[in-house]
Specification:
The structure holds three protein chains of three kinds.
Chain A: H1 2-8, H2 26-29, H3 31-34, H4 39-72, E1 74-76, E2 82-85, H5 89-96, H6 100-130, H7 136-148, H8 151-162, H9 168-176, H10 189-217, H11 221-229, H12 234-245, H13 247-262, H14 266-271, H15 283-292, H16 297-328
Antiparallel strand pairs in A: 1-2
Chain B: H1 2-8, H2 27-55, H3 77-83, H4 90-121, H5 127-137, H6 146-155, H7 162-186, H8 190-198, H9 203-231, H10 235-240, H11 249-252, H12 264-290, H13 292-296
Helix pairs in contact in B: 2-12, 3-12, 4-7, 4-9, 5-7, 7-9, 8-9, 9-12
Chain C: H1 2-23, E1 36-43, H2 48-62, E2 67-74, H3 75-87, E3 94-97, H4 101-105, H5 112-115, H6 118-123, H7 126-131, E4 133-134, E5 137-138, E6 141-146, E7 148-153, H8 154-160, H9 169-182, E8 185-188, H10 196-205, H11 223-237, H12 250-258, E9 262-268, H13 271-279, E10 285-288, E11 300-309, H14 318-329, H15 331-341, H16 348-353, H17 358-367, E12 371-373, H18 381-391, H19 401-413
Parallel strand pairs in C: 1-2, 1-3, 8-9, 11-12
Antiparallel strand pairs in C: 3-11, 4-5, 6-11, 7-9, 7-10
Helix pairs in contact in C: 8-9, 12-13, 18-19
The chains are: A mainly alpha, B mainly alpha, C alpha/beta.
Chain lengths: ~325, ~300, ~425
């Protein structure tokens, strides 16, 4: 049945053109309409469909990227004036920064922790939202709110709530009896980082849950029916039927989350500004500090390039692992 | 684990009509689900309820230590005041944000839908490269690219315009939209479309009547994602716009707390106002997020 | 059929771009006749924009043909905006900022004498004009200033049995212990990233420490500074400050003081308008000179913000800039800004105009004679300031003061 086909397609990752694609160009099948097209027109066809998208992406995204790379190779003064070519000097300075290894390590912990927690909880959430119970719609609407609110706002609100003077979290914990004195949560690097990761998960849950929920929606009833008829219990059904069919959604969710969490700025900036010192910085906040605290614009651009390279590396590794698992499974 | 298994025994997706197996739903399960559901909803709304309560407090009470749970006096006037503020012009900023976010979404979909559809259905030279480009460009966040973006807007003469913001928002959300739409289109079996051609539907007709409804969850996801992305976008709006009457709502909000003055009640009130349009949008489109399967019908 | 979709997409894109081009931002175009100038002002509070709007309206009425485009930016975002503008060659004509010397070093701005009339130039109080020099030439135009004094809560002092505000560091510690015993927070010490450099400098300067020595060489790691941090660290560890000074910002400390929770704090002249009046107008507080280690001299931290004018269009904007700045520095206009925002004057004329509301301001104005300023005339200052904001708080919590100061000294000595 066509259903099985839907799960083996790729979702547009790098090696898309080769893996298991069974698409045939539509035109030959409808020969009567397109028989007149010359070969050259046919080759231009993609350009027509993709043209505007390409123009936007190349124009508005890639151009500044080129600029960013160029900046990382220049010697820029504290005012922003370009003083000349610096070659690799900015990168050398960046890698000589004593705080960098901690920052990079923390970034990896940040990304892995937040993404894993987000996806795990989202799987459960999606199941909940997929089930029928009165008020389900309201719950779905409630779930959109953390996504609808800007991350900056949510982070500021959490910082407000965690404050040791006027924050409500301390008040609640004291009233319940867990604490007897307010704790300045965001002043201690480890606790601050834990809270910030929780906030990052909090704002990522809605989107991820909805992506998985949409994925659940594409699974037809017949599949579950078939599993039931085969005598599979609920856990077995979930693990061997639902999850594999969710793989495309999970891939989308994972990659988007990895990218967004890597580039995440407002949460850390609003809550601790990467402090105390550099104890809660990730590569993105560190990049910002290099430009506007240290006044080292060129070095900041170098950090941005390195950050991007890191993301690329992580995503490609992830895709490779997923691809390998798909081929085995 | 039992919660998960309890839910997954529903042997159907959410919107298919009840089949013969569910004439009398088991009551305990429904009760448990409802309780969990409402608890979850409460947890997600908690910080925003806190924002609401704080926004309604009178000024001297805002940062009282230790804090009070409820306002001693419900200052609804905080909302009225913030709406009529001139600096920042909150009501104008709301409309401006709506315009920018709406147009960005339209542009993204208008450009992304054809690209995704074609890529999903056809193999052509450069397809792999295109998809790789789409994936890679998602990794760029505007935060690192501000100077380049600004320089570009200068040369296009689009600084301090809504159109500049729209272009940038659309361009940065486009990769995700293409990616997810491509995935949804590709997951719809061609057989369905071909069945439609056989019935004499025509290419566009088939796409609109068969494929699009089935891909609706993807389209709606892309729509919501782009709208929210453009709506909450901060750094680019900050960099590109300069005049007071071209402020987005997100740009207006942090300005309430400066080094010399703090107006937290206005900050929270405006943030809450900013949430409303998005929730309204979502309420309208939410059902399409899940409805895909029943529309086309796998016969 | 396909063409429909493409057509729509292309059309929409095209339409947007074309209409965008048509409308077109005028920022940075550089008016050919030099009569329109861009002014980027910093946002102090929500009275800032209305003030400038009114001033500009009056200016344009008095000088037909001249126009000023205003952009008000938060202090938080100002550095990013200014850097972006300069990197893309889009700097404004006039900028309200807190530094100038690296602009001067890179030859981006006019000298002060080129953009204000001699009368205005002579009106600047020498104390401030001297600070606005780079390599002996005045570039910055003093805009507003503020000073710090020791604020203390009289009710808390009474409760703890303290009769006089402390004037030496030992007395501060003594008073703090008494207040701690009475159950309140003794000292507010904001060493969080918002303004750690100011707070630290206030203490350091009253121990004969500071950023640079007489010859202008960086001496961040001098012994006096290490002593200062040791002292502050001692207070912190003894619980004589609010919890976690390294993560508490000035805003929160001022607010808690206004609520009557904190006994002593280094307060600023703008504290009344921004923090005290909004929370508790009737707070029973007193103001005293800042305590020093040995109690002899009491320096205050002077802070001034500047106006600078960027060279553009081969000097074609100079005339318009000159007109606008002269207009602002007229005593009615300048003093109006100061009284609206709660700052201290930098010109003689405005200072005289303000003397009516002197009860609160007088101690601050008097303290200015002993004011020490941050070395804003050194182009490397912004990098040092950034390093201090990030690092110095850690010296009272975990890190060693000597090491922290050493790191900052390294930043200072690096070529900017």
């Amino acid at each position: 049945m066509a259903v099985q086909d839907t799960t083996t397609h790729n979702t547009g990752s790098g090696s898309g053109s080769r893996s298991g694609e069974e698409r045939t160009p539509v035109a030959p099948a409808r020969g009567s309409r397109h028989a007149g097209n010359s070969l050259r027109l046919r080759a231009l066809e993609p350009l027509l469909w993709l043209g505007p998208a390409l123009a936007l992406i190349l124009g508005v995204v890639i151009w500044p990227v080129v600029e960013m790379v160029r900046t990382s190779l220049m010697d820029i003064s504290s005012t922003g004036v370009t003083r000349g070519f610096a070659g690799g000097a900015n990168y050398a300075e960046l890698f000589a920064e004593p705080d960098l290894p901690g920052v990079v390590l923390r970034t990896l912990v940040w990304v892995v922790g937040v993404v894993t927690a987000t996806i795990t909880v989202s799987l459960a959430l999606a199941q909940l939202l997929n089930s029928r119970f009165p008020g389900r719609r309201m719950v779905r609407w409630a779930l959109i709110v953390p996504w609808a609110a800007s991350v900056l706002m949510t982070a500021l609100t959490w910082r407000w709530m965690l404050n040791n003077f006027y924050g409500v979290v301390n008040r609640v914990l004291m009233d319940v009896g867990i604490l007897d004195k307010p704790v300045n949560w965001l002043a201690h690097p480890a606790q601050a980082f834990a809270w910030m990761m929780a906030v990052a998960v909090f704002v990522s849950l809605p989107f991820t849950a909805f992506v998985i929920l949409s994925g659940l929606g594409t699974i037809p009833a017949e599949v579950y029916e078939a599993a039931r008829l085969d005598g599979a219990g609920p856990a077995r059904t979930y693990l061997s039927v639902t999850l594999p069919l969710l793989r495309p959604s999970l891939l989308v969710a994972a990659i988007i989350n990895v990218i967004n969490v890597f580039n995440s700025f407002p949460v850390i900036w609003a809550m601790t500004r990467g402090g105390p010192g550099f104890a809660t910085d990730t590569t993105t906040t560190y990049m910002y500090k290099l430009a506007f605290d240290n006044q080292a614009v060129g070095e900041s651009a170098a950090m941005a390039v390195v950050n991007f390279a890191l993301i690329l590396l992580v995503v490609l590794v992830y895709l490779r692992v997923v691809r390998r698992r798909e081929e085995i499974g | 684990m039992s919660a998960v298994t309890a839910r997954s025994t529903t042997p159907q997706s959410a919107t298919t009509p009840s089949t013969t197996t569910r004439r009398r739903p088991p009551r305990l399960r429904t009760v448990v689900l409802t309780a969990v559901g409402w608890l979850v909803a409460l947890m997600f709304l908690a910080p925003y309820l806190q924002m609401l309560l704080t926004a309604l407090k009178p000024t001297p009470e805002l940062m009282k230590s230790p804090p009070s749970y409820l306002p001693s006096r419900w200052e609804w006037s905080n909302f009225a005041d913030v709406w009529s503020l001139k600096d920042p012009p909150v009501s104008d900023a709301l409309w401006f944000s709506l315009y920018v976010a709406g147009m960005s979404t339209l542009l993204t979909l208008a450009v992304g839908l054809p690209a995704a559809y074609y890529t999903a259905r056809h193999r052509f030279r450069g397809r792999g490269a295109f998809l790789l480009l789409v994936l890679v460009t998602q990794m760029f966040a505007p935060t690192a690219l501000l100077v380049g973006i600004y320089r570009e807007m200068v040369s296009l003469d689009l600084t301090d315009t809504a159109e500049g913001l729209i272009l940038v928002n659309a361009a940065f959300n486009l990769p995700f939209c293409i990616w997810i739409l491509n995935a949804y289109f590709a997951s719809i079996p061609k057989e369905l479309e071909e069945a439609a051609y056989m019935d004499g539907a025509g290419r566009l007709g088939a796409m609109v009547r068969i494929t699009l409804p089935l891909a609706l969850p993807g389209v709606v996801t892309a729509l919501v994602y782009t709208f929210i992305g453009a709506w909450n976008e901060y750094v680019v709006a900050l960099t590109i716009t300069s005049s007071g009457d071209r402020t987005t709502l997100t740009k207006a909000i942090p300005g309430f707390v400066t080094a010399y003055q703090e107006q937290w009640q206005y900050l929270f009130a405006t943030s809450l106002i900013a949430i409303v349009p998005v929730v309204v949008l979502f309420v309208f489109v939410e059902r399409y997020l899940i409805s895909g399967l029943t529309a086309g019908g796998i016969k | 059929m396909k063409r429909h979709l493409i057509g729509i997409a292309a059309g929409v894109t095209l339409a947007l771009v074309v209409s965008g081009c048509g409308k077109g931002g005028s920022s940075g175009d550089g008016d050919s006749d030099g009569k329109t100038i861009r002014f980027v002002a910093a946002k102090y509070d929500d009275d800032t924009q209305p003030y400038w709007d009114n001033l500009i309206k009056a200016f344009e009425a008095r000088n037909p043909g001249y126009q000023v485009e205003l952009e008000v930016v938060d202090w938080e975002q100002l550095d990013s905006k200014v850097k972006t503008y300069i990197q893309t060659g889009q700097q404004p004509d006039v900028l309200n900022y807190n530094k100038f010397s690296d602009f001067a070093r890179d030859d981006l701005i006019y000298q002060a004498k080129d953009i204000v009339s001699p009368k205005v130039l002579a009106d600047f109080l020498p104390l401030f004009a001297d600070q606005a020099q780079y390599e002996g030439v005045q570039y910055g135009l003093p805009f507003i200033s503020s000073a710090r004094l020791f604020f203390y809560n009289k009710d808390i002092f009474d409760k703890a049995g303290i009769s006089e505000p402390p004037s030496t560091w030992a007395e501060v510690e003594d008073a703090a212990r008494k207040i701690q015993k009475a159950g309140d927070i003794p000292l507010g010490l904001p060493l969080g990233a918002e303004e750690a450099q100011a707070e630290f400098y206030i203490w350091a300067m009253n121990n004969s420490g500071g950023w640079i020595d007489k010859s202008g060489k960086w001496t961040v790691d001098q012994q006096a500074n290490v002593e200062t941090l040791d002292y502050l660290r001692k207070l912190t560890k003894a619980g004589l400050t609010q919890p976690n000074p390294e993560a508490t910002n000035r805003k929160d400390v001022f607010n808690q003081f206004a609520q009557g929770k904190i006994g002593m704090v280094n307060g600023a002249v703008f504290m009344r308008k921004g923090f005290l009046d909004t929370v508790d107008k009737n707070l029973n507080y007193g103001i005293a000179p800042l305590p020093s280690k040995d109690g002899t001299t009491h320096n205050t931290l002077g802070v001034q913000d500047y106006l600078v004018a960027f060279k553009k269009d081969e000097g074609r904007n100079r005339e318009a800039v000159n007109k606008f700045l002269d207009f602002f520095y007229q005593k009615e206009n300048a003093s109006k800004f100061l009284s609206t925002e709660g700052f201290l004057s930098v010109t003689k004329s405005a200072g005289n105009a303000l003397s009516s509301d002197s009860a609160y301001y007088k101690p601050f104005v008097d303290a200015l004679s002993g004011a020490r300023f941050a070395p804003t005339d050194n182009p490397n200052w912004s990098a040092v300031e950034g390093a201090v904001k990030q690092r110095i708080g850690t010296a009272v919590s975990g890190a060693e003061p000597k090491k922290v100061l050493g790191e900052i000294q390294e930043t200072a000595e690096k070529d900017g």
